[in-house]
Amino acid sequence: MKIHDAYDEWSPTYDTDENATRDLDKTVLVRSLGAFRFGTIIKAGCGTGKNTGLLLKIGREIQALDFSAGMIAKAKKRLTRQSRVTFVHADLSKRWPLPRGAADLVT
Fold first, then answer.
1. Predicted structure pTM score
2. How far apart are CA 34 and CA 78, in angstroms?
3. How would you write the pLDDT of the chain (107 residues) with one tens digit per residue?
4. Which end of the chain is more exposed for a tag (fewer CB within 10 A), N or C?
5. Could you count the other beta carbons within 10 Å of the beta carbon of residue 38?
């Protein structure tokens, strides 16, 4: 099974499966970036969009990249009313489909 297929399969339960490492990133983001403000933020590996709401509080717009169509679909459902988020299906191990210098912050 390819990795992106595994993430597609995992996407329905990703947010509810116990995963201390995955859940720690929100705490770290809040502590380290919560007081800052940015223009464009690239969220590399956006997954189900669980931290995108936080990033929207500190950024004007979000470019949310992931290689799993299932994860992006879940994130889109979570953020249906967010016009400031653009979801991009992309393999992060290859050249990203964004112009050079397109962001003030990459997470």
1. 0.86
2. 21
3. 888 788 888 888 888 888 888 778 888 989 999 999 999 999 999 999 989 989 999 999 999 999 999 999 999 999 888 899 999 999 999 999 998 898 999 99
4. N
5. 16
